[in-house]
Amino acid sequence: DTAVSQTPKYLVTQMGNDKSIKCEQNLGHDTMYWYKQDSKKFLKIMFSYNNKELIINETVPNRFSPKSPDKAHLNLHINSLELGDSAVYFCASSQDRIRGPYGYTFGSGTRLTVV
Amino acid sequence: QKEVEQDPGPLSVPEGAIVSLNCTYSNSAFQYFMWYRQYSRKGPELLMYTYSSGNKEDGRFTAQVDKSSKYISLFIRDSQPSDSATYLCAMSEIKAAGNKLTFGGGTRVLVKP
């Protein structure tokens, strides 16, 4: 049973399109995150939701919009895709009040290629 | 300048050797230090975590933190080919919710049989 699952695993799309990535966790965690890993392997946080409330919103173009329908799900919608959006997007979850920053579980990533 | 610096490697060692990895950081508010391992096309998985300065050992892995020098290290003893992966250091301040991890760029390690 996958703890943090992301769909799709691979996404190839043309510039200008709109796409969504979905994430679900079955760990009962209260906080979920989106991270972006670029071609040089740098992982950088984009957003975080705690019990459906947005608590971290880093400097990310407003073409990126997260949505958390419930605390087990966090989706990422990207409008007007650009070449520079090509990266691997990781979803993660944690139980902050119990394990703090040690409790992250990452999904296996969505590899987005914009052509 | 990035908040966390890590040599990208690759670091190539023969099987059985000690692998030595390190990161430097500039933000003195970081209190939590972690090492993640990432295999190709997989998500990062937590290997070690430490809070204070000093050493922490877990099997073949030893993590060291020197807050005065803003320097952390990971040592892997008796390295195995299965240790070949990218190793990422990560750091965090402490917050009640939304513990943002700041990562280094990762060091690619190759352990040759």
Description of the structure:
- Chain A has one helix at residues 96-99; strands at 4-7, 10-13, 19-25, 31-37, 43-50, 53-57, 64-70, 73-78, 87-94, 105-106, 110-114.
- Chain A has 115 residues and is mainly beta.
- In chain A, strands 2, 4, 5, 6, 9, 10 and 11 form a seven-stranded mixed beta sheet that branches. In chain A, strands 1-3-8-7 form a four-stranded antiparallel beta sheet, with no helix packed on it.
- In chain A, a hairpin with a 2-residue loop joins strand 5 and strand 6.
- Chain A is globular, with a radius of gyration of 13 Å.
- Chain B is an all-beta fold and 113 residues long.
- In chain B, the strands form two sheets. In chain B, strands 2, 4, 5, 9, 10 and 11 form a six-stranded mixed beta sheet that branches.
- The model of chain B has no long low-confidence stretch (mean pLDDT 92).
- The chains are: A mainly beta (115), B mainly beta (113).
- The A-B interface holds A 4, 30-31, 35, 40-45, 48, 50, 55-56, 90, 92, 94, 96-97, 100-102, 104, 106-109, 111 and B 2, 8, 32, 34, 38, 41-46, 49, 86, 88, 90, 92, 94-103, 105-106.
A few lines on this structure:
Chain A is mostly beta strands and 115 residues long.
Element layout with pairings:
The complex is a heterodimer of chains A (115) and B (113).
Chain A: E1 4-7, E2 10-13, E3 19-25, E4 31-37, E5 43-50, E6 53-57, E7 64-70, E8 73-78, E9 87-94, H1 96-99, E10 105-106, E11 110-114
Parallel strand pairs in A: 2-11
Antiparallel strand pairs in A: 1-3, 3-8, 4-5, 4-9, 5-6, 7-8, 9-10, 9-11
Chain B: E1 4-6, E2 11-14, E3 19-25, E4 32-38, E5 45-50, E6 54-58, E7 61-66, E8 71-76, E9 85-92, E10 102-103, E11 107-112
Parallel strand pairs in B: 2-11
Antiparallel strand pairs in B: 1-3, 3-8, 4-5, 4-9, 6-7, 7-8, 9-10, 9-11
What is the H/E string of chain A?
EEEEEEEEEHEE
**Main sheet record of chain B:** 6 strands, mixed
Number of helices of chain B: 0
Give the overall average pLDDT of chain A: 91
Order of helices and strands of chain B: EEEEEEEEEEE
Q: Which pair of chains has the greatest number of interface residues, and how are they split between the two chains?
A: A-B, 28 and 28 residues
Category from helices, strands and their pairing of chain A: mainly beta
Note poorly predicted spans of chain A: none
Number of strands of chain B: 11
